[in-house]
Amino acid sequence: MIRDLQINDAQELLSIYNYYVLNTTVTFDVEPLSIDAFLAKLKLISADYPFIVFEDNNEILGYAYGSRFRPKPAYNYVVESTVYVKHTAHGKQIGTKLYAELLKQLKETNLHTVLGVLTIPNDASIKLHEKFGFEQVANLKEVGFKFGEWQHVGIWQLKLD
């Protein structure tokens, strides 16, 4: 079941997120977030953008949201998309289901463009974005430093209107 975020989801979502902080380069956070910091992030994002969760048998297995791309006013019609699936729940099309619903909700707004900002290489995430019609528009080399190595970022774009 896909539903809107509820604030009492925070601890389960934080557990999903902090796994990726500690074990992967898909996020450039390098230290696990505290529950207070994560709650503040959830409240800030969900005030202006769709934030949805995938739940099965009362367990949250993933979440997706839109967020502000950059703070300048000219970017007001651009949104960055994010999806996380619990690391033990891959291969069940949860990311695809979340992204389909997120994009549906974003298309119902006055936003013009959605961007997927991905640490690369990341074949699964690239395939997910391209399945929905995103096209790669940028390749930023060595823009993040995590786990003692320089990380590359690709940007995929989809026009919503």
Q: What's a quick, concise take on this entry?
A:
With 161 residues, the chain is α+β, with helices and mostly antiparallel strands. Helices cover 32% and strands 36% of the residues.
Notable features of this structure?
about 160 residues, alpha+beta, Aminopeptidase, seven-stranded mixed beta sheet
What does this structure look like?
This protein has one domain (2-159): 3-Layer(aba) Sandwich (Aminopeptidase). The protein is of the alpha+beta class and 161 residues long. The chain has a seven-stranded mixed β-sheet with strand order 1-2-3-4-5-7-6, sandwiched between helices. The protein is globular, with a radius of gyration of 15 Å. Strand 2 and strand 3 (59-68) form a beta hairpin. The two termini are 27 Å apart. The chain contains four helices and seven strands; from the N terminus they run βααβββαβαββ. The mean pLDDT is 96.
Question: Judging from the principal axes of the Cα atoms, what is the shape?
Answer: globular
Q: Order of strands across the biggest sheet?
A: 1-2-3-4-5-7-6
* Percent helix: 25-40%
Superfamily at the CATH H level? Gcn5-related N-acetyltransferase (GNAT)
Rounded average pLDDT: 96
CATH topology: Aminopeptidase
Beta-strand percentage? 35-45%
Number of helices: 4
Strand and helix map with partners:
Blueprint: E1 2-4, H1 10-23, H2 35-48, E2 51-56, E3 59-68, E4 78-85, H3 94-107, E5 113-120, H4 123-131, E6 135-146, E7 149-159
